[in-house]
Amino acid sequence: MKKDKEERATCYEIKWKPPVHDVLKINIDGSMDPANASGGWGLVFRDELRVVAGLGASHMEHLQDVLHSEAEAYLQSLFQAQIWCISRVHVELTHNFWCNRSREASNGAIFTDIKFQISLNFSVFSIL
Question: Any idea what the Cα angle at residue 8 is, between residues 31 and 69, rounded to 5°?
Answer without folding.
Answer: 10
